[in-house]
Write a structure and sequence with these properties.
alpha/beta; 6 strands; NAD(P)H dehydrogenase (quinone) activity; flavoprotein
Amino acid sequence: MSKPNVLIVFYSRTRSTEILANAIAAGAVAEGAEVRLRRARELVGPEVMQQVPGWFDSAEAMNAKYEKPTEADAEWADAIIFGTPTRFGSISSELKAYIDGLGGLWFAGKLNGKAGSVFGSTSSRHGGNESTLLSIYAPMAHLGLIIVPLGYADPSMFKAGTPYGATHVSVHDTLVPDDDHLAVAEYQGRRVASVARSLRCVPSVTEAA
């Protein structure tokens, strides 16, 4: 049986979301998946980024590590997992710009039936982790992705995360994801890869006939 292809597209400014992305990738690989990790790019120039301490340098470092996501990545994938920091209770503009750029694949029906999942992080407690993840469910439904939530099907879920996807609260960038949050992220990678593999094995009506 061939490996399921899992695309993890994330935006991260101060590494919290990046760390979760890597844990999800590790879980997917453990489940036998082929993984592509991609970082969405900034929509503003260096002059704006340099007004926020550390933003420009962090972006430069992460962009050197991760390729920019493309339409070809989404077409290649059997599952797409989106990750974002919270921006006023919703998705970051950087990740949303990538999703908005998938219109050509959407129009051609090339995303229908792929697995989809989400994860994210926020700086402040009660800063909108759950509302952010749920805000991504809507465009995933429009793209035709089969949304894969986490539920409570793994013991890690009773210690951290949300039933909608892995999360983390950095408390104004003073904390990185701990073992409990990373365990949820790894479980998410395993779960999505498993679902993607199962979806690939289900024959269509015409194939079954």
